[in-house]
């Protein structure tokens, strides 16, 4: 019996992953502005967020905003940042699927702090 071959189509866009660096003046002082420096780019497919995904991220103290699937890359790490369409995300976790693809669980940068302060002011 022949095995069914599935081809993933990563056609929802391009994500860049890398780090955020602090911009410094000529004298070496920090400015309040930061810049995203991309290490690599990947095509991605946006995935639906399951309830168990939200629970998993919630137990880590995070809010899941976006879940995407990409081809597997060895250099992908959770300490990096992801930029999609000028929006920067923190990587909550990365789930590898048999060295074929990666599932990225992403949270908008600054959202947890903003959401916590909103909840405290509304109480």
Structural account:
The protein has 123 residues and is of the alpha+beta class. Helices cover 17% and strands 48% of the residues. The chain contains 2 helices and 6 strands. It has helices spanning 51-59, 111-122; strands at 13-24, 30-47, 66-71, 81-84, 87-97, 101-108. The chain has a 6-stranded antiparallel barrel. A hairpin with a 5-residue loop joins strand 1 and strand 2 (30-47). The longest helix has 12 residues, at 111-122. It starts with 12 loop residues before the first strand and ends with a helix.
Q: How many DSSP E strands?
A: 6
SSE-based structural type: alpha+beta
**Rg of Cα set:** 17 Å
Describe the largest sheet: 6 strands, antiparallel, barrel
Task: Give the strand order, joined by hyphens, for the main sheet.
Answer: 1-2-3-6-5-4
Helicity level, as a percent range? 10-25%
Estimate the mean pLDDT confidence: 85
State the low-pLDDT regions, or none. 112-123
């Amino acid at each position: 019996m022949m095995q069914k071959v599935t081809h993933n189509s990563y056609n929802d866009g391009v994500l860049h992953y890398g780090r955020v660096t602090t911009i410094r003046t000529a004298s070496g002082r920090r400015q309040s502005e930061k810049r995203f420096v991309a290490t690599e780019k990947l095509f991605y497919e946006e995935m639906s967020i399951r309830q168990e995904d939200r629970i998993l991220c919630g137990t880590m103290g995070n809010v899941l905003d976006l879940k995407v699937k990409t081809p597997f890359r060895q250099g992908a790490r959770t300490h990096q940042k992801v930029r999609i369409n000028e929006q920067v995300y923190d990587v909550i976790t990365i789930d590898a699927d048999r060295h074929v693809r990666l599932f990225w669980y992403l949270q908008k940068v600054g959202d947890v702090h903003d959401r916590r302060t909103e909840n405290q002011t509304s109480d």
